[in-house]
Amino acid sequence: NAILAVGLNLLMGYAGQISLGHAAFFGMGAYASAVLTTRYAWPSLLALTVGMIVAGIIAWLLARPILRLRGHYLAMATLGFGVIVHVLMVQATSWTGGPDGLNGIPPLNLLGWSVDSDLRWYAVIMAALLLAIGLSLNLVDSRIGRALRAVRGSEFAAQMLGIDTGRAKTQVFVVSALFAAFAGSLFAHQQSFVSPDSFNLTVSVELVTMVVLGGLGSVVGA
What we know:
By secondary structure, the protein is mainly α. Helices cover 72% and strands 5% of the residues.
C-alpha cells in the first residue's frame, strides 16, 4: 500500500492529476505475475518485469487522450478505465480464473533465493519501499519534478514558461503506473492468490484516501 501511495502521490500530489482507476495498474502487475508463473511456468522476476512493461505501455497509450481532461472529467475517465479493466478480469475466465481468481502462485524467486516466509517478505517489501521512496525523491528534486509542480500550480503558466505539459503529465502517469504494477506483482507472489475483488473501484478510492491523508505532495506522508 505504501509503494502504491508513493507512486500515486507523484501523479496527484506533484502533478495535480486525479486518478480513480489506479487499482487497474495494480491488478495488471498482479495478474501478469499470476498468469505467467502458474500457466506458463515463467520465472517470477521475468513475469514481474513483463507486467511492468505492459502496464507502462498501456499507461502511455492512455495518458495523452485522458490527461487532456481536467477536474471531474479526468476523475470520471480514470474511473471508467478502472471499471473496464475490472470487468475484463472478471470475464476473461480462461486467463484470470474469473470471479474465483487464480491460486497456487509460486513464491518470488530472487536469483535462486526463494521469498517463502513472512520475515523474508518483510525484508523484500521494505527494501522495495525504500527503493520506491528513493526514486520518488530523486524525481521530485529533478527538472521533471519542478515541471510537475509548475503544472500543478498553473498549467497555462507552465506552458508559457516553455514546459511541455502534456509530456510531463504523460511521464508521471507512466511512472505512477509502473509503481502500481510493481506492487501488484509483489502482492500476487506474497498472497499466492489473486481475484478481481482485490483491484476494484473501492481499492482505487482507498489509494486516493491514503495519499490525501498523508498529505498531497509529501513522499514521506504517502
